[in-house]
Predict the structure.
Amino acid sequence: MFDFDEAKEEIEKNTLLTERAEQLTNLVIDQKKFVFKKNEVNFDLAPLQEKGFVDINGDTIQLTEHDFLSYFAYRAFVRKFNFELSEDIRALFHFLKAIRDHFDSGKNTGITRFLRGVDGIALFLHHRQYPRKVTSFSERPDDAEKELIFLYTDALGRFLPYHEFASADLLSLLKTLYTFHKYDEPGVANFNIFRLRQGLQQLAQIRPEKAQELEALLLDNFDGISEDIAINIWTGLIQNNRSFLLKLRDYTRKEVFQPAVIVVLSAKSLFNQEEVLEVLHLIDVIHNDSKKYRLQLPKLYGSILVNSAVSDSQIRQQCFASLNELIKQPDPEYPIAVMSELRTIEGYEPEKTELLKTLVEQEHFEQKLIPSISWVFFEFHQSSLYFDFLTSFVTKFKFKIDEEIFEYTIPSLRNKDEIAFDQHLVTFLIHDLGELRWTGSRILSKLIFHHGMTRFANNILDLPPKSQFKLFTSVLSLINEAKHTLPSVLPLLHSQNEAVREGLTSRLEILSEDYGSQVTEALNDYFPEKTEEQQAVYDRIQYYMEVFFNNAKRKTEVKELNPLHTQSAIFDNYIKSYQKHFERTINEGVDKNSIMRQLATTVVLAKGGGWQHAETGEVMQLSSFGTSMTLPRSYFVSPDNFEWDRMVDRLENWKNFLPGWEVTH
């Protein structure tokens, strides 16, 4: 914490440090920026760097968030604007706004942390000079007043231990600010009161007697706000003096205090191993089945698991056993609380995986929990555990799974170890169970379309020949355009097994019936320098396409036999009907005061305005937008058969895939 008396003494000494600090502050004010190049500073920064006032990285000099510099800046702006503190706090707010206006035309990198320090010092000096003036805010502040209350809250919390409010007045002010910021419940993250919580903890550490005065006012009416204030006071008191643990034990005799005590005991890395055992014993003797109490327990167990002072494996096992019981609860708030804590715990990936597998095995499991599961795996490094979980998950739910399980997880896991991830992905793609192959295909599709994957990181030529055959069969059965799926399996054209090479080439011929030149274009793009064997494959597919489409052309010349004509007529009628319904629905939704409308942003274009073409620079008027994809020809020939074939591929068990393989190999 910043010591005002020490700073004042330092300034009065007029040392080299204060001289350099004043020079730097004046430079910031004159140049209206907070990051400089070395050639822009013509005085020695060594005293400032030694004290941590500036960071120097190469040729760049940047101010740190240091209250000593903020104090100098406050003094400089007082002189610049000829400002004097008065009882009217709004005059102080106008002064702080003038400082912001001064920097509006400058380069503002780093401005927020700099100005917050000035705000905190200015508010502290105001309240010190006018200690009996307790700030009051209107019950229904307008937008301008709201902005001032946000500023005031952060500034008050920054130097809360030094403010000289009477305890009752301070408590009244804190409750007003908590209420304004729509405080929810104890221990729940709320960034608007984050600085107040920090200030309360620092108050308890620096001035425990003042904190205990506040505490005495809280206990009789232990509502949500009083509870949160008490939690932060108790956290500071126990950080300052471990003997306060005895007092917390006394508080647990009353049920109303028990949830708050658990939050305090959940402070990260606070206790040594002996104290942790004492805390666990305390939890064992508390018999509280209330939801409010039990939802705090995951935080406690999580804090113990990340505590480096705890080396006893039995303690960790006890914590995971307790988390296992909580995650089984039918109320979804319990598993959500457990998973929120798991995200903050580094390591323990096998134990986390077992907890999540236990969760999905419950009869009451709901798929709305999947996003929380996905975020837990986002922090993982071992992709094998993720695929192990997916095996259990997909085996239970088959094809009825929420694909959010992939959204955040797969790019993060794959980036950490592409080879290991792709090995497990290939295992899924060639698995006997259709539901696992389908899951692998969904993962592969997302990697291809959203993350630009073109090849497996592992060498698929190292797979056994039968697995190679399964792999290209699985990948090329995806309902994706050939130009996206082909690159990942083209290396198998170099397989040492003739059956694999011939099978893939034949599959490419069949694929060319659906996608035409996309097949040969993919070969050109990913085999630009062809060997004789590659050229032979290319020529063979090109010849096959010519023969096939020449034959097809003869049939399609008869309009009634042309699937593009017969199916498109049906499709056009459907689209016309659908478009009318869709436009009507959209218009009705926009006309209402819907959530979508509240979230949307209206962009007004000048007359004739629109989008600028990247290559020509031409501005094209905005009229509509859309997207397109190439549908396979077989879909137009017979949509029902197309869907049926894909369904069979999905459901088929590959246990007897190519039964004669071992004989012919």
Notes: Residues 219 and 226 are 8 Å apart (CA to CA). The beta strands are 35-37, 54-57, 60-63, 610-612, 619-621.
